[in-house]
Amino acid sequence: MKPKVTMIAWNQNDNYVVTAVNNHLLKVWNSSTGQLLHDLVGHADEVFVLETHPFDCRIMLSAGHDGNIFIWDITKGTKTKHYFNMIEGQGHGAVFDCKFSPDGQHFACTDSHGHLLIFGFGCSRPYEKIPDQMFFHTDYRPLIRDSNSYVLDEQTQQAPHLMPPPFLVDVDGNPHPTKYQRLVPGRENCADEHLIPQLGYVATSDGEVVEQVIGQQTVDQDEPGLEPSILDGMIRQLQLEQDQRTAADQESAPSGPQNGEGTPRRG
Fold first, then answer.
1. What is the pTM of this model?
2. What is the pLDDT of residues 117-162, one digit of tens each?
3. 15 and 119: one domain?
4. C-alpha closest to that of 166 among 139, 131, 200
5. Based on the domain organization, do 121 and 9 belong to the same domain?
6. Is there a single domain that holds both residue 34 and residue 79?
């Protein structure tokens, strides 16, 4: 088998570089000299997650499709902690992504079965207030590109980062109660009536009719027999107000040198 590098990560102070190879080894290199320092053995499948600790230059996290999560001391080339993501009755779950918290005391992982795994110190009480299934209602809405190749939401024709905060729904598209909607950044201080999305019915590809947030529907709302979406009206109104404020700011700002190149708007 010809070795291939699947992931690369620098440690916190850039003195070391860690590479994941498709022979399941992790290699630690001196970033200045290119010297190979350690081979880290433990994974049994390909590794696509390498995360450095936010302030401890010794620590590196790795995770892969074998369900293993390792915490390494890359200066010594040793294994510090190990967790195997075994799911009862289903075998192991491949780990797709991991991130440290800013304080370095916790890290969270997502797996192939849709689970969020949270590791850290102390009790789990702060996390017990969240429901078992959480999705944004816009998660699976299709995207398109405009004439400048910028990404737009297909239904509303708006850039996703300029759209209002989405609603939290379960796996079937049913919205969660308002106490959970306030957990979404940007909705902390909304009035209760703004935290209750409009529900509607839409037919799936296999003909089943399901209830879901109107904003998820991707059909043309101008088709006869379809009610206009209140949620989309709110989104358009917010976008219009933001465009008006942006235009007013541009008119009042002093003119500068122009380079002739268009740039995408940023929220």
1. 0.57
2. 899 888 888 777 778 778 888 887 888 998 899 999 887 888 888 8
3. yes
4. 139
5. yes
6. yes
